[in-house]
Amino acid sequence: MIEKSYPIKENKSYDYSYLLLKPDSKVYINEIEELISENNFKILAKYLITDFYNISKNLYVEKESKHYELVDNHLKYISYLFGNEGLFYLVNKDSDKKSLINELLDLKVLIRNKYSFTHNIGGYLTVNNKLSHLNLVHSPESINYSDRDLNYLLNSESVKELSSEEVKLIRKYRSYNIWFYLD
């Protein structure tokens, strides 16, 4: 069953947006951060998503049913294969919000073109006879989606802001599951 809404505790508008790093992106964490910086984005904060599948599927609730089912399968498979943790970054740039969203979409495509072997060659990963891309990142398609998603993500119990020590460990080990490295 597809739910068409999710709980939003606040309904705020933000001067920034976000980039979601899916579980399959962890091996490219350092390269993705370099691309973010090279494209003049500022990372304002970094968050760990501890229940990636259940959190991220809600970002797609307004898609048509057939597309939502494909996305839902994709999110299940990458969470199963790569772990159920992801990251999201609050990002900003010296531009208006509409330009920020458009430039984030361009950055998303750049990251996918550079690092996703299934995206690059038009290939798929097959799990349980279902096809799925490894597309690494997600960004909102509009200002409305950006604000809606941020209201949801920033108030979710499965989202935790990362300390600088935790970020260093994630980058060092290229893993979003770093808790056994902490003292």
Give the helix/strand layout.
Elements: E1 17-21, H1 29-38, E2 42-49, H2 52-56, H3 65-82, E3 86-92, H4 97-115, H5 117-121, E4 125-127, E5 130-132, E6 137-138, H6 143-153, E7 159-161, H7 164-173
Summarize the structure.
This protein is an alpha+beta fold and 183 residues long. The chain is built from 7 helices and 7 strands. Helix content is 43%, strand content 17%.
Q: How does this model look, in words?
A:
- β4 and β5 form a beta hairpin.
- The chain is globular, with a radius of gyration of 16 Å.
- The protein has 183 residues and is an alpha+beta fold.
- The protein contains seven helices and seven strands.
- The protein has helices at 29-38, 52-56, 65-82, 97-115, 117-121, 143-153, 164-173; strands at residues 17-21, 42-49, 86-92, 125-127, 130-132, 137-138, 159-161.
- The strands form two sheets. Strands 6-1-3-2-7 form a five-stranded antiparallel β-sheet, with helices on both faces. Strands 4-5 form a two-stranded antiparallel sheet.
General shape: globular
Strand percentage lies at 15-25%
The side-by-side strand order for the widest beta sheet comes to: 6-1-3-2-7
Calculate the mean pLDDT score and round it.
Answer: 86
Biggest sheet record = 5 strands, antiparallel
H-E order: EHEHHEHHEEEHEH
Individual helix count: 7
Which oligomeric form is depicted?
A: single chain
**Level of helix content?**
40-55%
What's the total number of strands?
7
- What is the distance, rounded to the nearest whole angstrom, between the alpha carbons of the first and last residues? 42 Å
**Spans of at least 5 consecutive residues with low confidence:** 1-6
Return the structural class: alpha+beta
